[in-house]
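Human: Here is a favour to ask of a fellow structure person. Comparing notes only helps if you start from a blank page. I am asking you to supply a protein in sequence and structure-token form. Write it directly below this note and I will take it from there.

Assistant:
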Amino acid sequence: MDNYDDLSPSEVNDLLRKWRENNERKSSDVVSLWMNVLQTHSNKYGNEKYVLLEQIIYAMLDCHLYGLAKGLIYVLSLEFPSSLRVMRYKAAALEAEEKYDEALNVLDVIINADETNAPARKRRVAVLKAQGLIHEAIKELADYLKKFMSDVEAWQELCELYLQVQEYSRAAFCAEELILHQPHNHLMHQRLADIRYTMGGIENMELAKTYYCQTLKLNPDNLRALLGLFLVANNLVGQYKSSGNSKRKEAWRLSQWAQSRVSAKQRQARAKLGLTDMMLSLSLAE
């Protein structure tokens, strides 16, 4: 932990706000700042107090301080007895303690009260996944995406879950949805190319080649896509038996191009490493 001893309560609050805005957890630091500085000043921050307390609760759960977290949740439940958000804190505490069935019951109450409560639905998927119930998590997440079709993170998670159970065609569908949402993200094209390559067969190999090429068009420095294109092109060369086949010639040219690009990047990496070693030895000699 960094040294925050000289910070005033207002400066600590500003620091915690900055971490929230940057999505930085820093849980042990947050708990320490709360215990040493903010605990006696929490009533001075107006409406921001409740956002601050949420940050503190999740930090305590991260640090396995379940008793302290439950104490804050209890205080909030007295102040907001019918708050679904406070109920989510209770579910999070139960989940952190691996009381998964109880956590699911609380989440079900939230969902029954508000079917559009996306965070509760996503936590339900996370609890099922933590229990190893992958097929149940897939079903839950697929139902969620019927209502929240623009949730990119959910499509990514569903893709990963399908890959875990080796349902590659459905994983490919999820990857295609991700490309529709983020057409200029080279990693999305690379993911779909990887899946198509894994599925095998000439048709999937041709699709993998197309998506690897698009990945490299978006990011020429994507080494994984270069290696993938090299493997796909070599595979297609073997698939197209006729030496005069135009597709075979195209696959051969792509294979040679990808191999030359990979070799060039390896030479660049070795040269950079050699320069770094030389600078290091010079600094040591001085």
User: Anything to note?
Assistant: Residues 230 and 260 are 10 Å apart (CA to CA).
